[in-house]
């Protein structure tokens, strides 16, 4: 293994034959079975979806500058927040880190030539873009106004919008998740390089393994639930319709059986990324490896038994509420363990502040707030007041944007030199990271206050006394928007003009940093034999595993 | 042809035809049994019997036709996880659906006692 | 857009007092919820500040000074791991018990509550007082008296939310849910729909007027509608011909309804259920599902012929039968 | 690709990302098992809904169940069990390297049994239900006691058996491909993984029916007065 790389700090004029230039043409991409190229196909797709969903968000925030609504009719506003939620949750956040970085990195990190089922992997992408197609078609041809939660009987019997098309899109995209999760589970079980034992795996792999469990165990349920909803809407039969003895709350149970764990689909891979970033930029072995690893599994498992906390005020039985409340508190513990272990890793580290590290530190701060405000919602008595208000909106954006998206951005920046072989301008990257952090807090912190004041979510117009906080939030959103556009520009720029990165620009540990950037199509000239644990810093300046 | 288990390709255990036929006959017998039992009045035990027989039939298929009897622990864990998660879904959903009519029995902390007792 | 600029300016320049931080607290429930809320805020602030300061301290103290600098190896510590597992667990345990006890108390209406009925429909709140008055998007209640709202929806799921009282509950079609509160000060408070219910969800709002008991009594008497819900129900009872079968005594083709409210009833399905609003509603819209043994399944469903308001009036009538006819019968 | 030369004499079907044939085989089997776990939860969502409604409307579900004819359910159960046996025999004959004709015949027999199941289901059950007016949302003319609950039951009956039938159709498609592959000598005692993992799928579909039969046809018993 240590013989493979001659000189890491040479910056070659051309990047050699690699997975990007091994062959050319649109066919070579659309028919690729290379996990790295499939990762990039996902990257392109979800970036498009991110900006579609983001546009909806910006329009919503602009609209809410005035209490009576500045721009749209309520009907349009309702479609905007539904589109925003559906696109961001099902077509950006759920696939974000797993499908892009996961696809790209899992084989590299465990020392494999590809995932276990490359054809299936490509098929997953085609399934995903089919789902995207349905969602975009529905959005462009009039939109949907049910919210991303599709609660019947509104969605099944009352809405006049494209519910079926969108539900079908989500249903289809769900199979992409299932197959991706399946692929990852088998890959991690069966494709590890010799010597790569479970406890030598990078924590990113543990996190993605836990995520894949949720993909596999949760996604089928949302699929069947939306299937039933679609049939109810098309055939006018009552599955969830109280008129024939159906129970609309049953839909909510089945929906949240997936959709609460789905929150962890979004955040767990982010936690994995953070473990990589913290260790790389403090050149320190992770503090409490086994605790961080097992807390990922614990989160994945516990996440399946807490869904009822979304239903404390829906007419769910009080007794079920009590059970779900105690279980919800339980899921806070492994998350807390992670935060404390990351913090402890910094102790006596050699900490540097390149852009990915800024994202990682931002993640810890925002995730901490997001997690702690979750306690308000696990507590039954306060949840009654806060449920359905902007407090919820603020809380889950701290987790999903402050957490998952920050981690995604950090991960993209960290592995960008590996993916493209080139460096991006670090100055601009730091500026963007700072803008995103500031803009994010300005957008969402006032929403905690709004929620406590009692402003319900999904309101196209609102009482005038809430205006100041709403305007602050909208101002923050515009900063946030700019923060997200800047990376799009300089990352695109760097693909052509960036300096060559070399195999290991961060002097980080991990098998992916032992091979050239960009990696060759077959990843490893020879399958490595792993002899040491993950994050075995200090490095001697040259990566050797 | 001898058994293929010795091959380097890792071919697995070949189940004797007699086992397959035995399992098959058991399955047919159990189908007849479950149908027959439905015509006898056992009260609520009809449901229990029907489900118990279905579980036995499933086990026969899983263990012999699907070779789980000869497979690794990983396979078994995967199957158990599937059923365990199904159980989670059914149990916790019913914990709401079946307790909605319950009176709120008590004030204060002691409310937890009946919850634990009734749900365990 | 000028409004926007003004607002940005004012939000920057205005004193903090311009930004409200706390909703009015105007019910007996609000105080307890707020106390828990502040403790939670304190816990959040404590841990956030703790973690931020530690990180910030490490960031400065252990910043990389040269490109080749290396860090010493990491030593794990089981004691630390256990500490930060056990302390959060204990905090969570305390929070759970506190919040749950409070919640259960807040969920249980006192026995002597004034009852008011609420029907949600796209996109208005329809309120009916037992004494007769009805109102739309307004709710008049007396101060210092526990009030129980029994709520249902005519179409989709709504949610009845009074922030100042810290009470909220979904309003479901085909079912009754309820909340209760006891207002502690007179005044006017927001009433919101907090479950997305379609196009004009954000206009499904209104006001709660908390009045002194005398004002309230005056208001009740001053309405045009002077016929009580039970009387309206009685009218419906004869209009739909319910009395043909449901006669008092055991000779009718249907069971007698006198005095059944609040009593446990054994059903044909073998279950025993207390006769409450939900069960009576069920008996009207889906009679066979709650059939009483000894009577044939001959009652037709009234679903589609009767709206939620009328169901509530019939329920009020059946409830009113409780004492009267029972004493007559005996 | 150069290092692949080191692995000489790979059997057909060996994929480049694997190091050994055994690894590929195990990966394939694990993949299928994980897929079946997702199927458990896919059907599981419906079983959960069914369980909830059955416990809330037992009498109505019994009424609905009695609209179905046990003889078709029982016959179809038997048909599927036979098809599971023939599927197992098909794999066994590939595993032991019998003449390929034998494998093909077992496969064709399995497909025919699957088709028999579908024929019975559609022709003698669904079609008659349609004629009798007990298909919710399409033709519904049942107005006996517990009609709304019975309609709910029939919804579940059609969704569950429909989804199951869809899986059967997919299974028959897979078997067709396998038959062609067998005919083209793709399999040997060293390499028959596609047969094996498809067999797992076929048996799984059988298991789903093993539960659907009592849950849909036998609820609350069939004895007089039930």
Q: Can you tag this structure with a few keywords?
A:
B: 120 residues; mainly alpha; 2 domains; 4 helices; flat; disordered N terminus; D: 226 residues; Four Helix Bundle (Hemerythrin (Met), subunit A); 2 strands; 73% helix; elongated
Structure in words:
The complex is a heterotetramer of chains A (545), B (120), C (330) and D (226). Chain A is mostly helical and 545 residues long. Helices cover 66% and strands 0% of the residues of chain A. Chain A has helices at residues 26-30, 35-63, 74-93, 96-110, 118-140, 154-158, 163-190, 203-235, 248-282, 289-302, 318-346, 355-378, 380-386, 390-420, 426-453, 467-497. By secondary structure, chain B is mainly α. Chain B folds into two domains: 1-71; 72-120. The radius of gyration of chain B is 22 Å and the shape is flat. Chain C is of the alpha+beta class. Chain C has seven helices and twelve strands. In chain C, a hairpin with a 2-residue loop joins strand 1 and strand 2. In chain C, helix 2 runs antiparallel to helix 3 (78-107), helix 5 (229-239) packs across helix 7 and helix 6 crosses helix 7. Chain D is an all-alpha fold. Chain D has six helices and two strands, in the order ααααββαα. Chain D has a two-stranded antiparallel ribbon with strand order 1-2. In chain D, a hairpin with a 3-residue loop joins strand 1 (134-135) and strand 2. Classes of the chains: A mainly alpha (545), B mainly alpha (120), C alpha+beta (330), D mainly alpha (226). At the A-C interface, helix 3, helix 6, helix 9, helix 11 and helix 12 of A face helix 1, helix 2, helix 3, strand 7 and strand 9 of C.
Please give a quick description of this structure.
With 545 residues, chain A is mainly α. Chain A has helices at 26-30, 35-63, 74-93, 96-110, 118-140, 154-158, 163-190, 203-235, 248-282, 289-302, 318-346, 355-378, 380-386, 390-420, 426-453, 467-497. Residues 1-13 and 540-545 of chain A have low confidence and may be disordered.
Largest sheet entry of chain A: none
In N-to-C order, the SSE pattern of chain A is HHHHHHHHHHHHHHHH
Reported for the largest beta sheet of chain C, the result is: 5 strands, mixed
Q: How large, in whole angstroms, is the Cα Rg of chain A?
A: 23 Å
Topology:
The complex is a heterotetramer of chains A (545), B (120), C (330) and D (226).
Chain A: H1 26-30, H2 35-63, H3 74-93, H4 96-110, H5 118-140, H6 154-158, H7 163-190, H8 203-235, H9 248-282, H10 289-302, H11 318-346, H12 355-378, H13 380-386, H14 390-420, H15 426-453, H16 467-497
Helix pairs in contact in A: 2-3, 2-4, 2-5, 2-16, 3-5, 4-7, 4-8, 4-14, 5-7, 7-8, 8-9, 8-10, 9-11, 9-12, 9-14, 10-11, 11-12, 12-14, 12-15, 14-15, 15-16
Chain B: H1 17-37, H2 45-65, H3 73-97, H4 112-119
Helix pairs in contact in B: 1-2
Chain C: H1 2-13, H2 28-61, H3 78-107, E1 114-121, E2 124-128, E3 134-136, E4 138-142, E5 146-153, E6 158-162, E7 167-171, E8 177-182, E9 187-193, E10 206-211, H4 213-222, H5 229-239, E11 264-266, E12 272-274, H6 277-285, H7 308-329
Parallel strand pairs in C: 1-5, 4-10
Antiparallel strand pairs in C: 1-2, 2-3, 5-8, 6-7, 6-9, 9-10, 11-12
Helix pairs in contact in C: 2-3, 5-7, 6-7
